[in-house]
Amino acid sequence: MATVMQKIKDIEDEMARTQKNKATAHHLGLLKAKLAKLRRELLAPTSKGGGGAGEGFDVTKSGDARVGLVGFPSVGKSTLLNKLTGTFSEVASYEFTTLTCIPGVIVYRGAKIQPIATSSGYVLISSTLDQLLVCSSQILLLDLPGIIEGAKDGKGRGRQVISTARTCNCILIVLDAIKPITHKRLIEKELEGFGIRLNKEPPNLTFRKKDKGGINFTSTVTNTQLDLETVKAICSEYRIHNADISLRYDATADDLIDVIEGSRVYMPCIYAVNKIDQITLEELEILDKLPHYCPVSAHLEWNLDGLLEKIWEYLDLVRIYTKPKGLNPDYEDPVILSSKRRTVEDFCNRIHKDMVKQFKYALVWGSSVKHKPQRVGKEHELEDEDVVQIIKKDFCTNIQDKEHFGLGISRFSSTHWPAKSKCWQQHITTDIAASRYSSVYGTHGGT
Ligand SMILES: Nc1nc2c(ncn2[C@@H]2O[C@H](COP(=O)(O)OP(=O)(O)OP(=O)(O)O)[C@@H](O)[C@H]2O)c(=O)[nH]1
Ligand SMILES: [K+]
Ligand SMILES: [Mg+2]
Questions:
Q1: Which residues of the chain fall short of a pLDDT of 50?
Q2: What angle (nearest 5°) sits at the alpha carbon of residue 381, between those of residues 378 and 383?
């Protein structure tokens, strides 16, 4: 019996042989659905053919966000980790130097760093990174082993690498400026094969299964990619014979399969083109214009500031400042939320999982509200740089607790955190939320 991998290869070959036109569209759609199903089988932990789970590396969950370095061997991933975080990961000229996941912490203030113009139009970072130490967003950068083509199908440690990448908030695809541009597409294919969608919004289409009535396919726009026959072919592959499908944009067969399959992750991605010290200025100018590209030289520390800024921009994080009653907001140490999950409830959960149970209301200052301050509930969506004070339900008997809870949150003091000058050199071993909680409740005997 053919193995799953052989079946995948056969389908890929057949797709390559098949001419793309109107007459073959539904057949190609069917093949794509078959392929998606086989890949899922291969990657599922329970599958027989998969030979083990798509388990990632065991990495600490700490940090405000995590960014994964993915690329072919020897493109300079470890050099980048070393320069951006000060964490040591071995660098060498031979391939597969890195064999496991090495995390390092970028401490970023999230404010714009003034770029220093140089003759080539690029930015030179200071050799000490001291200028970044006034900040407090903790971004976990993950150095990963190099992947090779076929990783998604189980070659090398690739599956572990891609599984870990799936848990990230942003991916840095590291490319070597002097290697063929085709490498970019190969890495993308590996990630896509594992259900990771780069710089893409989830498909804006509705898919609703029903009990009878056949396949009903409607579209509010003229669509060039999908016709009823193709939609039916794809659905039949999933044994779906009754469903309403409506498109609000020119969706592809792959988009429809993504919606039916589910479990896709949509992630921002930056292409860090490394080793630009090896190319000409003309080549550099071309690279610099490409969307989502960030040319750097990790070795010579060129444009690392630019890369950090882009990472911050792509992570799309919001900073929320806490304000203890009667005191000024703590601007040094914001709570960092994803712009996709930024309600007052998300804010509470960042501090402690039980905080929301004691939540009465919040006072908010900033661009998300009209009045200063404004009383809001836990569904309220916060904006970048809002100031929040949480008021808890009045249930405490201990007067000290009562005062403490009533006063809103005080943030952890420097005694709970390593000196800022050390921050960026350390792996985070403590969970940030836990350390915040212990400082909020710890001395008052909270549970
Ligand atoms: N010229 C140049 N060489 C670089 C640059 N960055 C890294 N290198 C060199 O590229 C080689 C590979 O660097 P690594 O950081 O080990 O690459 P890697 O991607 O981590 O490699 P693996 O762990 O084996 O996958 C080393 O010899 C580095 O010195 C750069 O910006 N310019
Ligand atoms: K290497
Ligand atoms: Mg390495």
A1: 46-53, 110-135, 396-447
A2: 135
Sign of the alpha-carbon dihedral angle for 95, 98, 101, 103? negative
Tell me what pLDDT residue 406 has: 35
The CATH class of the 317-444 domain is: alpha beta
At residue 104, what are phi and psi to the nearest 5 degrees?
Answer: -140, 160
Domain boundary assignment for the chain: 4-50+203-261, 65-200+265-315, 317-444
Here the tokens at position 156 are: 């090398």
- Counting from 1 in the atom list of ligand 1, the atom nearest the Cα of 99 is 23
pLDDT for the residue numbered 23:
87
Other CB atoms closer than 10 Å to residue 166's CB: what's the count?
19
Query: Count of alpha carbons within 13 Å of 179, Cβ hemisphere only?
Result: 17
Which distant-in-sequence residues (6+ apart) come within 8 Å of 81 by Cβ? 69, 87, 89, 102, 104, 141, 143
430 residue type, one letter: T
Protein residue with its CA nearest to atom 27 in ligand 1: 93
For the chain, the 3-state helix, strand and coil shares in percent, each to the nearest 5, are: 35, 20, 45
CA of 145 to the centre of ligand 2 (A): 9
Which CATH class name applies to 65-200+265-315? alpha beta
Res 169: pLDDT: 92
Specify the length of the chain in residues: 447
Q: What is the pLDDT of residue 405?
A: 38
Pocket test for ligand 1, best of 70, 74, 276 (most atoms within 8 A of CB): 74
Enter the pTM of the model.
0.74
Atom 10, ligand 1: which residue's CA is nearest?
76
DSSP 285-327: HHHHHSTTEEE-BTTTTBSHHHHHHHHHHHHTEEEEEE--TTS
Tokens, residue 284: 């550099």
| Spatial distance between the Cα atoms of 179 and 73, rounded to a whole number of angstroms | 11
Cα 156 to averaged position of ligand 1 atoms, centre (Å): 20
Residue 283's Cβ-count burial label (10 Å; 0-12, 13-18, 19+) is: middle
Please determine, for the modelled complex, whether the ipTM score is greater than 0.95: yes
- The pocket around ligand 1, CB under 6 angstroms, is made up of 71, 73-79, 91-93, 95-98, 145-146, 274-275, 277-278, 297-300
Nearest alpha carbon, ligand 1 atom 12: 74
Please state the separation of Cα 184 from the chain's center in Å. 18
Q: What separation in Å is there between the alpha carbon of 239 and the centre of ligand 2?
A: 47
Q: Which pLDDT score, from 0 to 100, does residue 136 have?
A: 55
Determine the pLDDT at residue 154: 62
Q: How far is it, in rounded angstroms, from Cα 79 to Cα 129?
A: 15
